[in-house]
Design goal:
This protein has about 400 residues and is α/β, with parallel strands linked by helices. It folds into 3 domains: about 190 residues; about 80 residues, no CATH class; about 70 residues, no CATH class. Helix content is about 35%, strand content about 15%. The protein has 16 helices and 11 strands. The strands form 3 sheets. It has a 5-stranded parallel beta sheet with strand order 9-8-1-10-11, with helices on both faces. Strands 2-5-4-3 form a 4-stranded antiparallel beta sheet. The protein has a two-stranded antiparallel ribbon with strand order 6-7.
């Protein structure tokens, strides 16, 4: 039997990499704090590509530069984002002084910082679609005025492009990919497949002498495994294709070893850093089951510029994933991917595929079962969902 291993950002986080959404936002904030500490008074107001200071009462008007002079109260080092506004003031007309606030040249970033509670990359992509939908509907995008009414879909796409470029540079320059193998993680990804919930007797409730479940099929052996990475980093690549890891793989005591090797393949469905350009990274929305989709499709090309179904045509990877699914029975293991709506179109195609046997989400925190809710949202056929998704007591656990 075959397997598709879906890898999300949690896979990198499990290896200690600071690739999470909150890590990136923290990096942008710290970078601006360092910038302000290094700047002269004249430089603070004008030079940074993302942030600047305005008065606390100011509302950003896109494309205009406010007339003011921002200055630090003293030369002491500012230690945090929270200290910025307390340590920087604005002088108008040479004499008038008022408190400062951080404003945003990139208005999507401003929306994320001030109007969103997102903590994941999927949440950020949903923020993008939320703003795009509000633009389409002609509604104000934010009660606090961060996004003005004249903000267009093109403005939004330009801002997203800048953020993706920043992310690309952050991942290239700040993240070091581990070269050593964590055998415990690999053994979970390549555990034997199950066609039904794993029948571990300690999880089977009994009434008297009669077991509720008295028969199950024997598990199959894995033959072909497709690692479907939604990450941009090469963490999984170092597992599978670095010679220094081969001995560690053999020692996992799995079918995956030098004498009986499972055929493995890897596809970066959203692009990877080795492509050499931020333009290769796929960011946007992939939820064609959403009720607003039909209206977006009639709203002009800018509204479809970052729909993933269009972006997937950049490479043969999507077609190859579907071909793999078409080739025979497969199960799915999910490690570190939240299965949020932002990838619902692709996930639905796999989850409801006629060859899909079972779906095992990896549970790191047994008290957090949000992945089951997200998987539920990815199914149109809820009865099929209940048959295929492996229960919490039998799925892969941390």
């Amino acid at each position: 039997m075959n397997r598709i291993v879906i890898l999300g950002n949690g896979f990198d986080i499990a290896h200690g990499l600071l690739t999470g959404y909150r890590d990136f936002i923290k990096y942008l904030r710290n970078e601006f704090v360092d910038f302000v500490n290094a700047c002269s008074h004249e430089q603070i107001s004008k030079l940074h590509p993302l942030f600047y200071f305005t008065s606390a009462e100011a509302i950003l008007i896109n494309g205009t530069e406010p007339q003011f002079f921002a200055f630090k109260h003293n030369e002491e080092v500012i230690k945090s984002w929270e200290e910025l506004c307390a340590r920087v003031s604005i002088r108008y007309n040479g004499n008038d002084v008022c408190n400062a606030q951080v404003s945003f040249r990139n208005l999507l970033l401003g929306y994320v910082f001030t109007s969103s509670s997102s903590t994941t990359w999927g949440g950020f992509e949903n923020d993008y679609k939320d703003v795009l939908t509000r633009i389409m509907q002609g509604k104000p995008n934010s009660a606090n005025g961060i996004i003005p009414k004249n903000y267009t879909a093109k403005n939004l796409n330009d801002d997203l492009k800048q953020i993706v470029e920043l992310l690309y540079r952050y991942l290239k320059d700040q993240i070091t990919i581990p070269k050593t193998l964590d055998k415990k993680i690999l053994s979970k990804l390549l555990s034997k497949p199950i066609r039904k919930s794993r029948m571990d007797s300690k999880h089977v409730p009994r009434y008297g002498e009669i077991s509720i479940i008295n028969h199950h099929e024997e598990p199959d052996n894995l033959e072909n495994v497709l690692f479907l990475s939604f990450n941009y980093t090469a963490t999984i690549q170092n597992y599978l294709f670095k010679s220094e890891n081969f001995n560690a793989i053999d020692n996992c005591n799995l079918d995956y070893n030098s004498s009986n090797r499972i055929t493995t393949s890897l596809r970066y469905i959203h692009g990877d850093l080795d492509d050499g350009s931020s333009d290769s990274l796929i960011f946007g929305y992939g939820d064609e089951l959403d009720e607003s989709q039909a209206i977006l499709e009639r709203s002009g090309d800018e509204f479809l510029k970052h729909i993933k179904s269009v972006l997937y045509t950049r490479s043969p990877y999507y077609r190859e994933v579907i071909d793999f699914a078409d080739a025979g029975h497969f199960d799915i293991v999910i490690y570190g991917h939240s299965c949020s709506n932002t990838d619902r179109t692709l996930l639905n195609a796999l989850f409801e595929h006629e060859n899909c046997i079972s779906i095992q989400p990896y549970l790191y925190d047994l008290s957090d079962t949000s992945i089951y809710m997200n998987i539920y949202r990815c199914f149109k056929d809820k009865q099929l969902m209940r048959r295929r998704v492996v229960d919490q007591t039998s799925t892969i656990r941390g």
